[in-house]
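Notes on consecutive records. When two proteins share a document, each keeps its own sequence and its own token line. Never mix them. Below: protein one.
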Amino acid sequence: MNEVYKKFGQALKLERENKNISLADLSDELKISEENLTYIEAGEIDQLPSELYYNLFAKSYSKALGIDYNKTIEAIKEDLGEPIENAEQEQKGKEPDAQKTKAEDAAAAESNWFKKKFITLIIVIVGIFVIFMAIYKLFIEEDSPASTPDVTEPALPVEESPSSEAGPVSDEITGYNWDVSAPEEPPPFNMTLTAREECWVSLRADGDTVIFRNLVPWREYRAEARYRMKITVAQPSLVEIKLNDKPVDLRDPQTRRISGVEINQVNLDSVLNPPPQPEPEPVQPAAVQKQDSPAQTPQTTAAPTNPGDTVTRATPVRNTDTPDTVGPDSTRNQGEE
């Protein structure tokens, strides 16, 4: 058999040298030391740990060189005149036997581990049960009702509280109509916007943003809501607003702006039919007292003679109604004066 290994090793070495592969490169590729590869080429199977290692290393070596391990071994044995069946038995029979032995050993070890764990678990359960029974005998059984005399105390009378007596049922409860239909959803209302010029508008209907942009002039924008709307208009004078196809004025009476105005089912009627506004009272102008100039107001001086008589003497006043003119006539008038 050693002659077969030597012949096979020589074939491997010859093929490696023909392919110009160094032993170091082959060792790096196969992850097998150069020393073990040298033993395989020399056919020194005794230098390896076991025959199993030789078979594994030799198969990897031959596969790397492109050599069929089984056919090469059979050809070498045929040249040497050794039976091929023995080779097949050595190659195929020993490996399954070794694997079978390892599997049996692992199964036996696992079975022993399970038995040990099972026995340990039973011992722990029995110990807990014994401890529980001891505690029950020492403490719980002594305080049980069987060991203490039966002493009964007379029952105390229970006073009935006045609140426990049911009073008469109220007439409001008995006469209430419990067959009340479920509330119906309110009808939706709509709003139409038409801008005469470009104007920014923000409109929300039932919490959703419907319009948030500049309106295109003379384009009709329509939105519908069931519960509420909230509108803001940058320039209210440029936008015509209709509620349920009826023109409405949503401007604030004081600021004349539309900012965050909310319309809902509660104030819808008041917006569509606003109450008449009282007309403002006309403002009367304050009386202006015209004071005459001293030249226009005649001055009178009184010279009392007697306590009962009063004499009034008028002082001549220059007539200012005639305008002064510049020219010959004005000089003449001054000369006459």
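Protein two starts on the next line and is unrelated to protein one.
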Amino acid sequence: MNKRVIILGILVVALFAGLQATYIIREGYQGVVFQFGQHVVTRQDAGLYIKLPFVQDVIIFEKRVLGTEPQGAEYLSLDKKRLLVDHVSRWQITDPLLFYRTVRNETSAAARLDQIIAGRLREEIARHDFIDIVRLKREDIMATVTEGASEVALRDFGITLLDVRIQRIDLPTEVQASVFGRMEAERQRIAHRYRAEGEERAIEIRAEADKQREIILANAYQTSEVLRGEADADAAAITAQAFGQDLEFYSLFRRLQVYKNILGSQSTVVLPPNSDLLRYLESPVIVSPSDPLIVDAPVDDEVVGGDDGQDSEVGLGSTDETEIEEEAEGEGTENED
């Protein structure tokens, strides 16, 4: 019984000593071996390693890329604008022994690294105006901050700073309203300028269009008058040539036109017996009966002539009577002209 207890105790002690004599470095990690507080060896490759039990200790650190995202801080630009800047950094432990001796753990390392980055950011932002930081020089600022902070972090803490990015640039809440008001006023000024330029251009275009319209209308009117005059001249020449071949027919045609103008369907005309206007009404045989102007004339018209010196009456109904004696004769003469 005692032998079994002793053997069991020896096995437990041997197992414990075996566990203490070995350690594993997993993928993505690295370790530093110390013996009584003195550095023995640094392990940066994954694998199973042996150490002295109860004498040597192993400190494990991350070998993967780490990141920090601290809270935003206020900075002052070259043109005295207050800015609220958030940044994010990516870093890696490349010298675990120096890292352990200076900052001990990752939490302390992140805090010290954020202080270094914040200082570099403050220096760079103070060298540029607000508009340049927001639009033009943002990439240059991040590259400069990364380069400067990386040298300090590697020398003092064994950390390689891979990248620093500005995540957000904003204005403090108390100054946002005034800045937005100035921006809105500037945009309104630009909009008013564009509208004024557009209205001025529209007036110029309308004036030019009206000018061209008047020119086109004047040219068109001139052309139409010329064409109308030429047409009237040609018409007059053709008419004169046509009617000049038979003057008697021309006289008959003109008087028929006068009859058409002064006689209506319900009218009475009073003329003197010797009126030349009654010439063809008193002597219709002068004109051929087959003439279309005579054939188409109204058959219900009645011509009454007096031989006793009384006025002749042409009756076309029993309505209002109009005395047109010399007026009708004058209208006939005007139509001939």
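For the record: The chain is about 55% helix and 20% strand.
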